[in-house]
Amino acid sequence: MKNIKYFIITIVGFVFISCNADEFLNPIPDTAVAVDSFFQSDNDVLAGVIGIYDALQGVNENTETNITNFNRGVQFEHLLTEHRSDNTRNATLEGSKSDFHRYTVNANNVESEDYWQSMYEVVFRANNILNFIDIADAGNRAKYTAEAKFLRAYAYFNLVRLFGDVPLVTTVIGPADEKTPLFIRVPVTQVYEQIILDLQEAVNNLDNSYKSRASKAGAQALLAKVYLTQPNRNYSGAQQLCESIINSGDYSLQTNFHDVFYKELNSEIIFAIQYQAGNALESQSFSSEFTSSIRAGREDGQNIVNENLKNLFDTNGGNRTAVSITDLDGRLAVDDFEVAKFLPDGFDYTSNYGPNARNAGNDYIAIRYADVLLMHVEAILAGGEATVNSSALSSFQKIKDRAFPATAPNTIASITKEELLQERRIELAFENQRWYDLLRFGVAETVLSAHAAEMGYVFTPRALLLPIPAREINISGGLLTQNPGY
């Protein structure tokens, strides 16, 4: 990460990974002495907090040679989200990465397993820091606690939406402790209760000093999405949180849509996971994998744009279209368009994606202001079919005005649920939101069944949840149960 120096020294690495390789939910250090001997000062605790982001960032797949059991963090997330929606597909049918877009993922899928492990590594590191929070200076304890809980909530929110009921672990379990909680799935509602508690604490104890670390606005935006997603929706709570961000004046849309993705930590970014170009340990490889034509990646073509999304950009994309998709000036086959939003380090195909595409530094944008504006509309819509609320219209119009500046102000008289979902699809395309949007709007089964029929895939409701990794079930001795249909 460019603005957060990873000063996790050797002993911290030992504390985090010196464990039985089979214990991914909550790696247990071989000895508590190593942990106790490291956490001696406020700086040590801060180092541990920063280490949580390192787990979220993950390890560049380009460093995989001779390295095993390294979690990829969010770098595989497009496979579990965009590919399972109607947005994108893999260019080939080879390998486990091609299973997602065809809804053929099984319990042995290595990318799904890696994501499970990655998110639980975030949870473990957060829990570990909370165990030593009293060592921090008194004035920093609330802030460090809030930051760790924000990241734990972020990981659990991803897990519960992708896998359903999951083990809920909020403390470090030592070698002599009962390990059953590590392997017992708890109801989704209980997981959401913990997520909400963690995010509320983050809202109350953070400010907006950072964009590449947890912030008050980041916690508010994430909590708003949780309120819109949880089984018992809290639309009024989500609306209040979005309006707090809007009224803060701390964030604004970039005038140029291109700058959202290539002018990092800009005014629109609320929370981004950072990477550093050219550094094998701090860079990412997913940007180079989104093309099947430049041959910059190891397994090319992981985000080929589906034709109906390309057509939607043609009619409703405005100035977002050229930034979002490309046909490489006609060099691709008919109807084969690729993602242009995350060209490695901003280099396009004319430069063969720059000198080091597989060690790209593009940030992963987790939360941005445009998403908050559209969530604001969603909260006001409150599950209804349409709204004429002036506040909702104002938020929606800001998105439209940027996309179509030549006709701004784009006066809008009403917004339907379908129009909002379509706008989110275009605005946030390839940012790993579409899958979650379809679930949240209650249309996933209908949309994806039609999409699968069009593409020649077989979609069944079991695909609405990913399988619990078979390896984790085996480790648990059968305590972990599998999702239906797998």
Describe this structure in words.
The protein has 486 residues and is mainly alpha-helical. Helix content is 44%, strand content 6%. The protein has 18 helices and ten strands. The protein has helices at residues 10-17, 32-38, 42-57, 77-80, 110-131, 138-163, 188-205, 216-229, 235-248, 257-262, 307-316, 321-324, 369-381, 390-403, 417-427, 434-440, 444-455, 470-475, and strands spanning 88-89, 166-167, 185-186, 269-273, 304-305, 325-326, 337-339, 364-368, 386-387, 415-416. The strands form four sheets. Strands 1-5-7-6 form a four-stranded antiparallel beta sheet. The radius of gyration is 22 Å and the shape is globular. Mean pLDDT is 89; it is low at 1-33.
Q: Outline of this structure?
A:
With 486 residues, the chain is mainly alpha-helical.
Strand content: 5-15%
Tell me the helix content.
40-55%
Roughly how many Å is the radius of gyration? Answer: 22 Å
Which structural category fits the helices and strands?
A: mainly alpha
Sequence of strands across the biggest β-sheet: 1-5-7-6
Count of distinct strands:
10
SSE order: HHHHEHHEEHHHHEEHHEEEHEHEHHHH
Q: What general form does the structure show?
A: globular
First-to-last CA distance: 38 Å
DSSP summary: helix tally: 18
Largest sheet: 4 strands, antiparallel
- Mean pLDDT reading: 89
| Uncertain residue segments | 1-33
